[in-house]
Amino acid sequence: MQEPRFPRIPSEQMDPRQQEVAASIASGPRGEVKGPFLALLHHPDLADHLQQLGEHLRFGTGLPPELIELAVLITARHWDCQYEWFAHQRIALNTTALDPAVIDAIAHGKPLPGMPDEQRAACDFCTELLRAGEPGQRAYDAILHRYGRRGVLDLLALCGYYGLLAMVLNTARIPLPDGTPAPLPPKRRP
């Protein structure tokens, strides 16, 4: 296991701004400072802005929880982010109606099994966005038709936000909890 590049800052060593941001994160829906925010607290203003954006994207959009978690999982898989996958696979399995076979297919890069049309549309949108830099017209139209421009922007922002967090987690080398095996198999690279 590689050493984290951004060590956890003990609360007694935090400056006042770091303490303020840590308290804000811990008092919100996350309940504690963990994952990417362990690294981001080294830049408390950035951490604060990102945690507010993340809170909106996870808990304040009009998108169904299944679509939110699909966007996160597809993004985590794209970036090979073990920590993000570990955290959100559990959320997806425990708090949404996502089929475990869909989650497994995303993890292993297999064709997706049958799924509701809105979930398929979100998968296509996010996958195309991450592969090509924009979704194809059919995927775009499917999300636009179901959720409007606001839904399109929410889904774009979810992929962008969780892509940023994946890069933070990977660069900072935030470890999985002790004894947790890597949940994602290695990605086949060309």
TrEMBL record:
SUPFAM superfamilies: AhpD-like. Residues 44-121 form the Carboxymuconolactone decarboxylase-like domain. Pfam families: CMD. GO terms for molecular function: peroxiredoxin activity. InterPro entries: AhpD-like, CMD-like. This is 4-carboxymuconolactone decarboxylase.
